[in-house]
Peptidase S58 DmpA (Paraburkholderia graminis), 365 residues
Amino acid sequence: MSSMQSQPSQADNNAPHIGTLPSGALGTIADVEGVTVGHCTLAEGALQTGVTVIRPHADDPFVDKVPAAVSVINGFGKSVGLVQIDELGTLETPIALTNTFGVAAVAQAQIRAAINANPGIGREWPTVNPLVFECNDGYLNDIQALAIGEQHFNDAYAAAGTKVASGSVGAGRGMSCFDLKGGIGTASRVVSVAGREYVVGALALANFGRLPMLVVDGHPVGRILAERAAKAKADADATKPEQGSIIMIVATDAPLDARQLKRLSLRAAAGLARTGSVYGHGSGDIALAFSTAYTVPHLAQYIALPPLVADQCMDPLFRACADSVEQAILDALWSAQSVTGRDGHRRLSLRESVPDLAHLLKQSP
């Protein structure tokens, strides 16, 4: 069953608000003007997976590229397209998220879509750089079934809009986070920089962490839950390796170049660390940041840049990045629905696991 049904967004799930910066009107990455998100979800029996697509603007991203940069915090991952972004500092396809074994199919779908829109690609023009990020959803999803195909990318692309669903949806359908149900999370923050207001938005594909490590707005919730659960030692053993991955996409309308976006993307690690992650050996932790403030025309000989934010004025953007990434991870946990998948494996949502979560947050030190 392929579905594009929505789930709650961060604005609806009552997760604690991180920090003091205000959210945008939607409380999602779509608060950055022009950015849209679409999901295609596969949810039937052992197939619990999907594709999520982020469009940086409504036009053709190959013709009108946007500045971007990537930070690899821990490189246990199989994403495609990062090398060229690191070299050239631009996006030229939508950003796609899926499971590890779906990367090739989604990359091919991106290539076909780009060729259909621009028949000169690979002939008179250079080839296109597909950009696909991944996490391993093999605990809940039969990843060996290779269920993801080109149509799933196309469906997610077609569904892209400003109403961003989060939780057990799209690429997040089969993901786990802190031994609970993880998935897609999103958030935004509004900041003032040198007298002008800008938005920083984040979208996370959260698939990492062990329960005892979970920290919620500074509260050691995971440790308390692990102690309370009184499960088998293996379930609450904090020494068991942290495995999984997280992909963090950061968008802003602040005028930044690729070098500055690299600096911004690195601050996603601060938000990730606050939730309890130590970027374990087996975790692929990758952050990409892009700006919608201007585009880079494919055929340009010279590029006219707007006045860029000075480096010494970037601290509010760094803070907004860290806060929005942390908020997006909490959004994934708060919004997720419990899922049963491959071989009867089940991940309970945070809210189903802890009905008294609000009380616990008030009581924890």
